[in-house]
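Consider a concrete sample entry:
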Amino acid sequence: MNFITFLKQFNKNNVFPSKIPCDCLEFNKKIKNDTYNKVPNGETHMDILHNDKKIGYVNYRHHNGQIGIIYVEKNYRNKGVGICTLNKIEEELIKNKVPTLWGITTKDHYFLSKYKNIIWSERPHDSVTGSGYLKKLNIK
């Protein structure tokens, strides 16, 4: 977060913006069939909880690493919740030997594009929404 964003958030909420430690989040997973790719038990819906309150969710395909959607409630954005969630998914994918974490999205998507060329790289893909981004995972 840059200093101007910090000041805007501080002035708006009268509180200092702070990160939420990953160990303060809980994740409730529900596995279902991936009907698009016809993979039984291939899709995960995971609620993101903080202090027993649902603050977001993510849908992803744990057999190929595709993020379908990640959503974090407005008051919890820019506090590390998205990164903690992606780290949790990444751990699972590495454990299951899935080589990439990826999502199809527009090039100007705030969350993924701000990490472009740092952890994410552009992923060529013909899609209605755009090419998207991917992160290669360290599979051993």
In short: The longest strand covers residues 39-50. The mean pLDDT is 79. DSSP finds three helices and seven strands in the chain. The chain has one domain: 3-10+25-136.
